[in-house]
């Protein structure tokens, strides 16, 4: 391939990839240090674009093979602009019964797009805040996992619902 053809191909390929994600409204990740401390809250500030339309919300995670559990418990809190708060405790499956980690990715890092809420209408104007914290416990133990290993990034995503 000639150099000018390679550049043109790269530009076209980039545009195709960008257009494939036309449902994205908000998508942000924050890195987790070497382990995710149980008291560490990952926060996202969001200003939704349209208060009349419904959106689907996701928690996105990137994890490595160091993640040693089959599931993941999260506490997700949404703080509305006028002070109302909704707090959910959520459980996600992270591995199949054989222990193979779920998610997308061919390398040692898997990416998981986890449903949080669907058909949400942001009817209050202003900034919303989403707080995400892990709530992992080992079987038979009262105290939670203090340092959760294997999670590298925590993200939050808002999408327009896909037309059917």
From TrEMBL:
<feature type="signal peptide">
    <location>
        <begin position="1"/>
        <end position="18"/>
    </location>
</feature>
<dbReference type="Pfam" id="PF14109">
    <property type="entry name" value="GldH_lipo"/>
</dbReference>
<keyword id="KW-0449">Lipoprotein</keyword>
<dbReference type="InterPro" id="IPR020018">
    <property type="entry name" value="Motility-assoc_lipoprot_GldH"/>
</dbReference>
<keyword id="KW-0732">Signal</keyword>
<protein>
    <submittedName>
        <fullName>Gliding motility lipoprotein GldH</fullName>
    </submittedName>
</protein>
């Amino acid at each position: 391939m000639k150099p000018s053809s390679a550049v043109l191909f790269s530009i076209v390929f980039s545009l195709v990839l960008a257009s494939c994600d036309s449902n994205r409204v908000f998508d942000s990740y924050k890195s987790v240090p070497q382990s995710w401390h149980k008291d560490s809250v990952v926060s996202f500030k969001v200003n939704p674009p349209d208060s009349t339309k419904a959106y689907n919300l996701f928690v996105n995670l990137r994890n490595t093979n160091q993640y040693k559990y089959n599931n993941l418990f999260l506490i997700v809190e949404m703080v509305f602009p006028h002070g109302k708060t909704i707090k959910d405790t959520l459980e996600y499956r992270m591995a199949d019964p054989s222990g193979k980690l779920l998610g997308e990715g061919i390398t040692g890092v898997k990416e998981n797009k986890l449903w949080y809420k669907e058909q949400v209408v942001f009817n209050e104007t202003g900034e919303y805040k989403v707080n995400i914290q892990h709530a992992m416990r080992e079987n038979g133990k009262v105290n939670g996992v203090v340092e959760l290993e294997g999670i590298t990034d925590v993200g939050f995503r808002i999408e327009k619902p896909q037309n059917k």
